[in-house]
Specification:
Elements: E1 12-20, E2 24-27, H1 28-32, H2 39-46, E3 50-53, H3 60-75, E4 84-88, H4 99-107, E5 113-117, H5 123-136, E6 142-150, H6 160-163, E7 168-177, E8 186-194, E9 202-203, E10 226-227, H7 229-250, E11 260-263, H8 268-278, H9 289-292, H10 299-309, E12 318-325, E13 329-336
Parallel strand pairs: 4-5, 4-6, 11-12
Antiparallel strand pairs: 1-7, 2-3, 6-7, 8-13, 9-10, 12-13
Helix pairs in contact: 3-4, 7-8
The structure holds coenzyme A.
Length: about 325
């Protein structure tokens, strides 16, 4: 499949990365005291051991701002150089204005246009591709792309099916036009998709215009995450695998060319099912979900930053980012680091 989102020759690079997770750790042992679950069940079914929880008063934009600052420092740029800020999130500070506008205010990035993207766990990669278009057309030069979530604010802490899975955090990347060539960290290809027929298997049913929260339904917790875990699992494996293969194919590469796969951090078993089928070995797969759980739009962004800062990815490596989430949505991005 060719890249339907491709515009002109790619000159977009990842100039810097950053991430931030809140200090408070919620372990599986802590959850044992909250719902009928066990460390053994959570670890064996998901690989998650602990997750981070935002402090009272700490909002998604606060997490996003900190990650954004760290990405800017890594890229060596000043707030005034940023002309586009996109925040991918499903847990925005408010319905409006966009969380990206709060981040703009916090950073003093007064030259940026700002908006949010809602594509759930695929959101960071959707936002990267949107930024790539803005940059490729010459419209913008320097984008701050952030995935940030405070999922603890939308989890039903009495539902063991979901509350053990999610966490809070933010990751960010600075995308820039490379006018000189040869700077490395180039985005080579991307594959994005959605299947709106599957909206009901992973969603928050209430709190929006279709089902406002009223005094009559307030006790039903309709503004919390609902999920059909097994259905999501099956779909995730197939969609992410196809997305990785598509991005590689566009660049004339195959699975054996992958130096590091950075997948969405939802479930270790989902990741293993994909990599085993594709023949990608564990040492070429980046996993940090044991420490953070599923942070939705932030997950791939945090993992990319950790892979970058720990030297897990080196200059010239073919790095594939892939995600999957509610919508359903999926996305992959191939980068030559
Ligand atoms: N602790 C203990 N038991 C639990 C539990 C928990 N936290 N959550 C569910 N269970 C129970 C279920 O009630 C069920 O009990 P029953 O057999 O008596 O009905 C049993 O464990 C098995 O549940 P099942 O749903 O079959 O488990 P699973 O092997 O499919 O694993 C998930 C459940 C959620 C871990 C798995 O389906 C999954 O990861 N799905 C994808 C979720 C995801 O990635 N979502 C985000 C996408 S971006």
């Amino acid at each position: 499949m060719s890249d339907p989102d491709a515009t002109i020759e790619c000159t977009v690079t990842i100039a810097g990365t950053g991430s931030y997770v809140p200090e408070k750790v919620l372990s599986n042992a802590d959850l044992e005291g909250m719902v009928d679950t066990s460390d053994e069940w959570i670890t064996s079914r998901t690989g998650i051991r602990e997750r981070r929880i935002a402090a009272d008063g700490q909002s998604t934009s606060d997490l996003a701002t900190e990650a954004g600052k760290r990405a800017m420092a890594d890229a060596g740029i000043e707030p005034g150089e940023i002309d586009l800020i996109i925040v991918a999130t499903i847990s925005p500070d408010a319905f409006f204005p966009a969380t990206a506008c709060y981040v703009q205010k916090n950073l003093g990035a007064t030259n940026a246009m700002c908006f949010d993207v809602s594509a759930a766990c695929s959101g960071f990669l959707y936002a990267m591709q949107i930024s790539r278009h803005f940059i490729n057309t010459g419209n913008r030069k320097t984008a701050l792309v952030i995935g940030a979530e405070k999922l603890s604010s939308m989890v039903d802490w009495e539902d063991r099916n979901t509350c053990v899975l999610f966490g809070d955090g933010a990751g960010a990347a600075v995308l820039r036009r490379d006018d000189n060539g040869g700077a490395g960290r180039k985005i080579l290809s991307s594959s994005l998709g959605s299947d709106g027929r599957q909206t009901d298997i992973l969603h928050v049913p209430g709190g929006g215009s279709a089902c406002p929260i009223t005094p009559d339904n307030a006790d039903q917790k309709l503004n919390t995450i609902r999920m059909q875990g097994r259905e999501v699992y099956k779909y995730a494996v197939n969609a992410m695998r196809r997305a990785v293969e598509d991005a590689l194919q566009q660049a004339g590469l195959g699975a054996s060319d992958v130096d590091m796969l950075i997948p969405h951090q939802a479930n270790k078993r989902i990741i293993e099912a994909i990599t085993e089928r594709m023949g990608i070995p564990p040492e070429k797969t980046f996993i940090n979900l044991d420490r953070y759980g599923n942070t939705s739009a932030a997950a791939v962004a945090i993992a990319l930053d950790e892979a970058n800062k720990t030297g897990s990815i080196k200059a010239g490596d073919h790095v594939v980012l892939v995600a999957f989430g509610a919508g359903l949505t999926w996305a992959s991005t191939l980068v030559q680091w």
